[in-house]
Every structure is written in structure tokens, then in C-alpha cells.
Amino acid sequence: MNGSEDRRSEDLMKDTDSMDARPGCRGAAGQGGAAGLAALALSCAALLPGLAQAQVQVQDYPNRPIRLVLPFAGGTDVVARLLAQRMSVSLGQQVLPDQRLGAGGNIAHETVAKAAPDGYTLLMAAPPVVLNPLLNPKVGFDPVRDFAPVAVVAAIPSVLVVHPLVPAKSMKELVALARRNPDKLSYGSGGVGSTPHLASELLKSLAGVKMLHVPYKSATIALTGAMSGEVDVVVVASSSAAPYVKNGRLRALAVLDGKRVSAMADVPTAAEVGFPQLMAVNWYALLAPRDTPAAIVERLNAEAVKAINAPETRERLAGIGGEPMTTSPAQSATFIRDEMARWGKVIRDAGVKAE
User: Fold this and answer.
1) Cβ–Cβ under 8 Å, residues 86 and 310
2) From CA 133, how far away is CA 142, in angstroms rounded?
3) CA neighbor of 266 nearest in space, from 177, 170, 176, 167
4) pLDDT per residue over 96-106, tens digit each?
5) Which pLDDT does position 5 carry in this prediction?
6) What is the chain's percent helix, strand, coil content, to nearest 5?
7) What is the pLDDT of residue 57?
8) How many whole angstroms separate alpha carbon 186 and alpha carbon 220?
9) Is the CB of residue 142 less than 8 Å from the CB of residue 223?
10) What's the pLDDT band for 21 if we cut at 50, 70, 90?
């Protein structure tokens, strides 16, 4: 055997060794010859039952009830039950809302993040699924890494309101008032790191003003605080504020969304009054555990979109000030990432820390 043949033989042995290290049916090819081919066939055949079983599971989905985990009551519960009712009919299996309240929603978030990726455990998510990890990186889940987004299904815009005695009848007047009186105006929120808190911090940054933060235990209590005059300003769901704006107990200055809301049609959007970046909506999204088969995610997306756009559902959603949204799984994933980036910057710039 000459030198070149020796080198070819050595190269062949190296290739064989590397093939042996590979898992599955490819590694069996490293045995060489007829024995290697036989091992290859046996190894590949061993994988087929698992693949076939997975395919059957997708085709047979769903064949038992689906658990829809809820981190909150309120709007989250309402939207979840609207979806569950119609999806139960179209899927042929019960979609069962299951409240797992506590820890700012993280009990529910972690439950679904760690569930089997088979489409039988889903999460009705709201903004805290994005905000909580930004405020506390030690929570037991990552909203991008640990979930397969199915669909963003609904949104309820926020509105910025003031007590009637605050001498500001427009956003321009409020900003001017805050600039003349640094840290004299106060704003309430449902707690540190809540959407109303961060939206108010975003306003402070955009307008270059200073206001005092007064955190309450919930957005409802913060709203009561604004009506009683304990605080001057509050950002709250438009559906919660509308009745009090109508009866004069609050004055609405801007809707923090891209369009006006029907319940307060004369209230301009933040963009209309010079703050296009001041957007804050209470959105609701259907999420599955990471690695849920794409076919199941697509099936759930189709059924969720159909359910949320049904006339009866739209009517009931409008009753709480909400509007349906229609997004694909890919669009939903982009939405989640964008929300993380946007609020992450607000949190960093304002130095907000979890309590």
C-alpha cells in the first residue's frame, strides 16, 4: 500500500469514527458493510413507532379536555370563558378554564411553561407574562423561550384620566402643569411594574416631567383613589373609566391606543395630542408550552380566531370595552418580543424594580 492509499485509509477510519459518535440511525452506518446496513435499518426502524405515534397524536387532537390556565380574574377570566365556550364546540372537547391565581400571575405562568407540550394545557396570558420577567429575571419562565404563541385574541385600551379639580382639560395642559410643578402632581397605579405604572413612567419620559407615584394594591383601588382626589392622575382600562367619565367624576384626556374608543368617542388618542409612542393596552393572548407541535398550534389558532370573531363573542367583548384581535402564531411571537423590548426599555430607563 503506497503513501496516498495509507492516507485515504486513515481518513476513512476518521470518518467512520465520527459517524459512530452520531445518535440514531446515522450512527449505525459507522459499522460498515452488510452488518452496518442491517444495523442502520434496525436503528431507523426503531425510530418509526415514535414518529408514527406523534403523528397520530396530532391527527387525533384533541381527544380529551383541554385545560386553559388563568393567572388572573377580571378581564382575563372573561376573555378566557368567551373563548372556551365557543372553542369547546368547534374542537369537540371541553376547554376548561382553570384559575391559578397568585404571585402576580407567575403560578399560572410557570404551570404552563413546565407542562407537557401536547396542546392540552394552555395559558390565557396578559401583559404580566412579559412584564414580570423584566422586573424580576429570577422568575421560573421566559416568555419568549418557554412558550409557543398561538394567538393574540383581544385588547382593551387604557385611558389617562384626571380628577375633575386638576386644572388641565387636555394632555397639553397636563404636561404644562406638571412642568411648572415638579413632583407636585401624583399618579396612582395598581402596583409597581403594572401596566398603568409603566405607562405613566413612559409619559414622564416622553414629556420630560416629574410626578409622584402612589402604588395601590389594585387598579380598581387606584381608580377609586383618583375619584376621591387622593391622586391626580391614573391610567386605567377604558371600560373601567367610561362610566365615571360620563357622570363627571373623572376627566379623560387621552386614549392610549391607535384609535378612539366608542364609549368615549370625543376623547382623542395619545397620538392625536402629540404622544404617538404612549400606547398601553390590556391584551390577552393564548399561549402553549414550548415545543407544542406546529400542527396543533395552527389548529388552536384557527379555532381561537374563529371564536373571538363570532358576532356573539364580539358583542360580549365590546361589553367590557374590548376588541378582537386576529394574529397568526408568527405574528403573535413578534408581538410578544416587541412588547418585551418596548417595556424593557421603559423599565430600564425609569429604574423600576420589583418589590
Assistant:
1) yes
2) 7
3) 170
4) 999 999 999 99
5) 43
6) 50, 15, 30
7) 60
8) 17
9) no
10) very low
Length of the chain: 355
pLDDT at 224 over 60: yes
Pick the CATH number of 157-273 from 3.40.1360.10, 3.40.190.10, 3.40.50.1970, 1.10.12.10: 3.40.190.10
In the chain, % of residues over pLDDT 90: 75
Query: 234, 226 in Cβ contact below 8 A?
Result: yes
- 43-50: list long-range contacts, CB under 8 Å, 24+ apart: none
pLDDT of residue 46: 61
Q: Provide the β-strand partners of residue 87.
A: none
HSE at residue 82, side-chain half, CA atoms within 13 A, is 30
In the chain, where do the E strands start and end? 66-70, 95-99, 121-125, 147-162, 186-189, 212-215, 233-237, 251-255, 281-289, 323-324
Shared fold status for 66-153+288-350 and 157-273: yes
| Rounded CA separation 193/202 (Å) | 12
Q: Is this prediction's pTM over 0.85? A: no
What pLDDT, on the 0 to 100 scale, is given for residue 24?
Answer: 47
- Is the predicted pLDDT of residue 269 greater than 90, yes or no? yes
Each domain of the chain, given as residue ranges in start order, spans 3-59, 66-153+288-350, 157-273
Phi first, then psi: give them for residue 5, nearest 5 degrees.
Answer: -65, -35
